[in-house]
Amino acid sequence: MLRYVLTRTASLVASLVVASLVIFLVLEVVPGDPASFMLGMNAQPETVAALRSELGLDAGALQRYATWVGGVLSGDFGTSYAYRTPVSGMILDRVQVSLPLALLSLALSTAIAFPIGLWAAARRGTPTDTGIMAATQVGVALPNFWFAMLLVLLFAVRLRWLPAGGFPGWADPVAAVKALLLPALALALPQAAILSRVMRSALVDTMSEDFIRTARAKGLTRWQVLTRHALRNALIPVLTIIGLQFSFLLAGAIIIENVFFLPGLGRLVFQAISQRDLIVVKSVVLLLVVAVVLVNYVVDLAYLAVDPRLRRP
């Protein structure tokens, strides 16, 4: 068990180091100069040089990398080139939208997928199973932004139950949750379709194991065997997909954030790229990579609770 944890921790640290290097190097080779972009094409060379010095862009690549990483480790993400405000404050404002949206989407996805996957596995080979799998295939194929627009037309325009977009802030929690509900649902349903298919496949594979036949021989019903014995043993691939889905929901919701005009991390990165605000791009992308790596690390540790074989010395 200790060896397993140490191995995963070493992999976590190595992944973060490599990710920071890749992010820095990729943005280094991007053509264009942020100082020239900020000042315009007609700026004098000495003015551009002065701004580059002020922004720290005239230092060597190794020094800039060390300064950036050191600042990130201390909580100082630098100052935005475009807005001249601390990047950490900009990220904190946007995380208050993106993180609750990702968590709400993941909760909805899991709440929908688990009973559907269990029901399909319990009715394996029946018309019910076939219908559920066909419906989930449609859910996987549908673009979430198209589905989001349908939700807006139904619940915001026609029924007027929920707002069509924008975010009022957390001063009014009820209004904030209502603003996030439609985008969370648009993100959750395609992910629920994927998760339910994985759940059903994992349960079907587990139901063919010897210990399941032993449980059935003891007189347990199919549903009791499914929920008491098969479910826990089928959770490893399900946990993997849940971890990947949370990473996607946190880092990949840029289209949904633009559809609903949500001031999240996705829109922040999009705006920073269009303005050549590379310090914001580097910091936000690194933060998202850290979140993805940490979630995968937590999922790896969660395997210890699910699979007793990993706890053996």
From TrEMBL:
Major location (coarse): membrane
Keywords: Cell membrane, Membrane, Transmembrane, Transmembrane helix, Transport
GO annotation, cellular component aspect: plasma membrane
Subcellular location as annotated: Cell membrane
Membrane association type: Multi-pass membrane protein
Listed Gene3D superfamilies: MetI-like
Domain spans labelled ABC transmembrane type-1: 95-299
Annotated Pfam families: BPD_transp_1, BPD_transp_1_N
InterPro entries given in the database record: BPD_transp_1_N, MetI-like, MetI-like_sf
Membrane-spanning ranges: 12-30, 99-122, 134-155, 175-195, 234-256, 284-306
UniProt key word Protein transport: no
GO terms of molecular function: dipeptide transmembrane transporter activity
Family: Belongs to the binding-protein-dependent transport system permease family.
Protein name stated in the entry: Peptide/nickel transport system permease protein
Origin species: Amaricoccus macauensis
